[in-house]
Amino acid sequence: MTDRNDVPAAGEDLLDDLRWRGLIHDSTDLDELRARLASGPITYYVGFDPTAASLHVGHLVQVLTARRLQLAGHHPLLLVGGATGQIGDPRESSERSLNPPEVVAGWVGKIRDQLSPFMSFTGDNAARMVNNLDWTGPTSVIDFLRDVGKHFPVSKMIARDVVKSRLESGISFTEFSYQLLQANDFHQLHERHGCALQFGGSDQWGNITAGVDFIRRRGGGPVHAFTTPLVTKADGTKFGKSEGGAVWLDGTMTSPYAFYQFWLNADDRDVNKYLRFFSFKSRDELLALEAATAERPFAREAQKALALELTTLVHGADEAQAAILASSALFGRGALDSLPEATLRAALSEAGLVQVKSLGTVASLLKEAGLVSSLNEARRAIGEGGAYVNNERVTDNEATVPEDALLHGRFLVLRRGKKSFAGVELLG
C-alpha cells in the first residue's frame, strides 16, 4: 500500500475529512474522539463476517475507511469473524441459514486474503488480522453466560430495531444473542490489543454501542465508535447489485470488466456521493469532478475517474486498463484482436453471449444474439449500414462469417448501430 499526501494526517483533519465525505452517520462523542485522535495513534477495528466466499462492493465503505485511518497513522485490526460468521447477524426479513463450520473456515481464509492488499502489514502502524473464533471457540457456555451475558439487560437487547421487527415473526435465541458476541469482540480486542475505536455500517450501531457499554461495565475504557452510512442508489434499486447479481470483489465471481462497468454506469445523481465515499482523490479534485458532472454530464468524467480508480485499487492497473480498452474496442474505437481472451469473454458475457454450434449468416446471428427480433429486421439493419461483425460493417444481406474471423478462435462481436452489441461463441 502506498501513502498519499492528500490523506489527512491525524485528529481534527481526519474527522473533518470523514464528515465532509459523509462517512460518519452515528457516533459516540465526537469531541472526545477528536481529542483522543489528537493525542496520538489509536488502535481501531472493523469486522467482516464470512457469509460468502467474497466481499462485495458494499463492503468497500468499511475497507476503504479502514485504509483512510491507517494512512492517517492509526493502528488497524481487521476482524474476520470465524465465530460470528457461524451465527449471523439478524436480518429484518427472516432467519439466516447456518453454514457448516468448515465452509465458514474456508471463507475466513478467502476474505483475509482479499482484505490484505488494501492495508499495509509493515511499519509502525502495521495492520493485524484477527479471528474472533480464537477467543470465542474455547469459551464454555457457562463462562460466556456468566462473564458476558450477565452484563446485558434483555430490555436493551430487544430495543434494537432489527430485533423488534422480528419479535412477531420470530427470532431464534441464536440470532438474538449475536450482539453479545460482537460486544465481546470489542472487549477482547480492548483487553488484548488496546483497541479503543470500533466502526462499521449504520445497521451495526446497536451491536457496536453494546460493545462500548460492555467495556464500560467491565471497568474498561474510554472507548469510541462511529458508523458509516449504508450506501443507497437514487433510483431506489439496491446498491451493489447488477443484472447478474451482487458485484463481488473476487475477480472470478465478478470480472474486472463487469466491475469497471458497474462504476462507469453510475447514475449522475449518485456518482458524486460514490466519489466521496470511495475515492482517495483530494477534496479539490472531487469538487472539480462534481463541477464537471453538473456542466458536462454527457462526458461522464466522474464515472470514468471512479471506475478507473476503484478497478485499479481492487484488481490492479493492468486489469483496469484492459477494461478500458475493452470498452473502447467493443464500440468500434479500438482493436478487438488486442483484447485478452478472458477480458473479451467477460465483456461479451456482460452484454449477452449466445453460444452456437455452427456459424450461419450474419442476419441469423443478429437474430440469435437478440439484437433484432426477426430475420427481416436483421436484413433491414444490414441494408441500412447499421450491422457490424468485429467492428467491420456488413453490407450483404446473405453474408456468412468464415471461421477465420473468430477472435481467439471462438468469439464474434456483433453490433447494431453505435451502442447495441452482443457476443457469439462457437462451441466445439
TrEMBL record:
ATP binds at K241. Its main location: cytoplasm. It holds the Pfam family SYY_C-terminal. Belongs to the class-I aminoacyl-tRNA synthetase family. TyrS type 1 subfamily. Catalyzes the attachment of tyrosine to tRNA(Tyr) in a two-step reaction: tyrosine is first activated by ATP to form Tyr-AMP and then transferred to the acceptor end of tRNA(Tyr). CDD domains: S4, TyrRS_core. This is Tyrosine--tRNA ligase. Its EC number is 6.1.1.1. Keywords: Aminoacyl-tRNA synthetase, ATP-binding, Cytoplasm, Ligase, Nucleotide-binding, Protein biosynthesis, RNA-binding. L-tyrosine binds at Y45, Y178, Q182. GO terms for biological process: tyrosyl-tRNA aminoacylation. Homodimer. It is an enzyme of class 6 (ligase). It catalyses: tRNA(Tyr) + L-tyrosine + ATP = L-tyrosyl-tRNA(Tyr) + AMP + diphosphate + H(+). A motif ('HIGH' region) lies at residues 50-59. Residues 360-422 form the RNA-binding S4 domain. The keyword Transferase does not apply. A motif ('KMSKS' region) lies at residues 238-242. HAMAP family: Tyr_tRNA_synth_type1. GO terms for molecular function: ATP binding; protein homodimerization activity; RNA binding; tyrosine-tRNA ligase activity. One of its GO terms (cellular component) is cytosol. It is found in: Cytoplasm.
